[in-house]
Amino acid sequence: MPNPNEAPETEQGRALFQELLWVHSVVRRDLETVRRLASEVVDGLPAEQLNAELDELQTNGPLWQLKVNCLRYCRFVHLHHHAEDVLLFPRLRETDSDIGPVVDKLEADHRRVSDDLDEVEAAAEHLTNGDSEAARERVADGLNVLAENLLAHLDFEEREAGPTLRRLERL
């Protein structure tokens, strides 16, 4: 009996992997804005302008254009990770019996990034309610931690789950 872990790539699997890469490119693009905002917040970016920039991420991102009932960048990442947890990861486990530790790490990453997203939202709200150096540092720190953790997660997922994803016959 052939080893399912050595199955060839499929057209569907390659298409799913390309879609994942596209979504990750959107996340990376917006993280460039996040990193710029982190620096500008520390340098004195007014709270109103920070919120306007965050609103820009919310309303002009690809999800808005695709009319996915989600206006916030943070919600986009939450939803993307939820879809992976519910739809993708079980299929990866079925396709490759050895991928369990990779999926376990990806699920743990999702929980950490979720906490990071919540912290960024709370820090931005705190800054809006009272502009101070400490509030600015909290926003900048939150944005930098989010960027670092999310970029590491995206790289790991593409590298470690990509080969199995490309072998999926269906989702």
Strand content: under 5%
Measured on Cα atoms, how large is the radius of gyration? 18 Å
Give the tally of structural domains: 1
Taken from the alpha-carbon principal axes, the silhouette is elongated
Largest sheet, in brief, is: none
Mean pLDDT: 81
- SS summary, helix count: 6
The count of β-strands is 0
- In CATH, the topology is named Four Helix Bundle (Hemerythrin (Met), subunit A)
**Helical content band:** over 70%
Structure notes:
The protein is mostly helical. The protein has one domain (10-165): nmb1532 protein domain like (Four Helix Bundle (Hemerythrin (Met), subunit A)). 80% of the residues lie in helices and 0% in strands. The chain has six helices and no strands. It has helices at 11-42, 47-60, 62-65, 73-95, 100-129, 133-165. Helix 1 runs antiparallel to helix 6 and helix 4 packs antiparallel against helix 5. The longest helix is centred in the C-terminal third of the chain and has 33 residues, at 133-165. The two termini are 23 Å apart. The model is unreliable at 62-71 (pLDDT under 50).
